[in-house]
Structures are given as structure tokens and as C-alpha cells.
Amino acid sequence: MTAAAARAPRSLPGRRVVLADAEIMARSAAAWLLNRVLDTPGRVAVCLSGGNTPRPVYALLAKPPYRDCFPWDRVHWFWGDERCVPPDHPRSNFAMVRAVLLNHVPIPPAHIHPIAAADGPARGAATYEDELKGFYGADAFASGRPLFAATLLGLGEDGHTASLFPGVAALAERVHWTAGVPEAKPEARVTLTYPTLNCSAAVAFLATGPAKRPILHRLARGEDLPAAHIQPVGNITWFLDRDAAP
Ligand code: 6PG
Question: Which of 52, 81, 230 to mutate to test the pocket of ligand 1 (most atoms within 8 A of CB)?
């Protein structure tokens, strides 16, 4: 064993919850989200992930028992990233959540905060930064006052999370709350930056299926991948199914 391998941590940072399959993982993540919201008094901000993995979680929230017991009137919904496409585009993260969740539950329209990414990466990022600062009520994060009570994140096979892809300029952004990602393919994107995602009281990463196992293994070995820089002020929980778990 090399010295580097000996030093490498052998576990994912945070708590790891391994479930039998993707459906049970979704049930577990939905329960986690409800509990995070119920544990947070007053107005609550939740940050949602795009991608396919969280879709069954959103579908569960739209149905009983979640639909009936979720405190919809005090939760505000934000997105961790968005593609620069119109809000009804098939690849829009907002369109996905709207179809699966928002259309089916009594959320006050003013509590839905999509990223206006169709305006292009730079303008979309600037507009969303203003929106986040307006909601937070300050231009800088205060210690002990997380922006998000709960943040859901996915994991790409290259180690990206939100739209923080390996090598993009947004990885280095420490001042702005959002960033354009013009490098993203097939279209540019807007993403929340590390300081913003890390201003979360709790983060849940969701990953299922055998295709995610190699990257989870690399993360567990301590590789410097974009997802490894998610270090929230609160805790991280990894919701995995058996196929993905390293
Ligand atoms: C997106 C994301 C992205 C996603 C990962 C995993 O908009 O696509 O926010 O970071 O979570 O690419 O995607 P899957 O869940 O589809 O594997």
C-alpha cells in the first residue's frame, strides 16, 4: 500500500444510509426531508436537485401521506442548478419538479423560486443571487443561520454535484452565491456555488445504481472531486442503494 493510499479516508464524509433498492432509498430520503422541515421552525428553505435520482422522492411528496402532512405553507423551494433552457423544456430541472411535485400540492406560488436560466448563464446567475439574498435578508451568510434547512444533491459519474463539474470556473467561486457554467454541455447552466450549498443545515446526497459505485468509491478514498467540497455547516447523509454503495 502506498503512503497516499494509507492516508486516504475509507468512508464517505458524513452518515451513510444504504437501502435495498432505489424505491426504498426514495422513501427514506422523503422521510428525511419531512423530518428536516418539521424540525425547523418558521419559514423553511429547501434546495432541490435535478437529475433522475430524486424524481421518485418528489413523486412521494406529492402523494399521501406526505401531501397531507407536509407544512406546505411555510416551505420555500429553491434549486441547486438549472440548465439554460426555457422553464417548460424537457431538460429543465424546474419543469421536472413542477410536473412531479409542484402541480399536485398546495404550495403558495410565491414560495417557488426557479432559476431563470433561460436568460443565459451570467444573467441567470445574477438574478438568482439577488433572489437568494432577498430571501435570506442579507448580502453575506451569517454563522449559525443556514440559508437552507435541507439540501438535496445528486452525484454525477465524474464526481460533479449540482452543476459543479470537474474543471469549470464555478468551482473556484467563493464570493458569489451563484455562478454561470458556460462550459456545460449540451447547454450552459447556472449553479449555486460552494459557499451557498454549504450554507445548509443538512445535506442529503442521493445516488443509486451500479454506475455510481466507482465514483462513490473514489470519493470514499478521499479523491479531490467536486462533490468532496460539499462541507455544509450542518451534516451530510448519503442515501444509497446496495448497487451504488462502495
Ligand atoms: C442536474 C443535477 C446534477 C445531477 C447529477 C446526477 O441538474 O442534472 O443537478 O448534479 O444531480 O448529474 O444525476 P442523476 O440523478 O440523473 O444521476
Answer: 81
Which atom of ligand 1 is least distant from the CA of 80? Answer: 9
For residue range 117-134, list pLDDT tens digits in order: 999 999 999 999 999 999
The pTM (predicted TM-score) of the whole model is 0.95
Residue recorded with cell 443556514:
146
Ligand 1 pocket check for 156: Cβ under 6 Å: yes
Taking alpha carbons only, the member of 71, 70, 87, 81 closest to residue 47 is 81
Per CATH, is 51-165+175-188+201-207 categorized as 3.40.50.1360?
yes
Instruction: Classify 200 as helix, strand or coil.
Output: strand
Before 108, cis peptide (omega within 30)? no
